[in-house]
Amino acid sequence: MTIDAALTTAMETIPDCIAAGYVDMETGMLLGISATGTEDGAALETLAVAVANLFQGRGVQAFEALLASAGLQDPENPGFGEISVFSNDRLHIFMRTRAYPEHVVCYICRDSANIGLTLTKSHLSLGPVAAAV
In which domain of life is the source organism classified (predicted)? Predict the structure, then answer.
């Protein structure tokens, strides 16, 4: 299965999901994309560049260092594995893959999505999406 096909399958299971992308944080490249509309695909391309800063920016690194110094972070799996962001009318979910820690799967959902179900379905889709790489 291709990465685009895996993202399309994931979108079908995630409530109110309108776009999905697979980003390489080292290059900022969008390696795979699936979207219901061209506007949503364009949003993912813009987000791809910002994802590395979201996970590896100075503010996040300082917060992670604070957690590590307090003994609240797993030393074998440093860094945030997942970040969820609400905007005006969208829910953005960014998840690192375990197999490729420099890769992030991005899902964009309508704000009407049930957050608990959306996060659960996103977690379930992560393995098959990463396996398609």
Answer: Bacteria
**Buried b / exposed e along 98-122 (16+ C-beta atoms within 10 A):** eeeeebbbbbbbeeebeeeebbebb
pLDDT band at 119 (very low <50, low <70, confident <90, very high): very high
Q: Which amino acid is at 61?
A: Q
Per-residue tokens: 16: 């109110």
What is the biggest distance separating any 2 CA atoms in the chain, rounded to whole angstroms? 45
Residues paired with residue 41 on neighbouring β-strands, in sequence order: none
Q: Which of 32, 39, 42 is nearest to 11 (CA)?
A: 32
Write phi, then psi, for 128 (nearest 5 degrees): -60, -35
Please give the domain boundaries of the chain with CATH numbers for all domains: 3-131 (3.30.450.30)
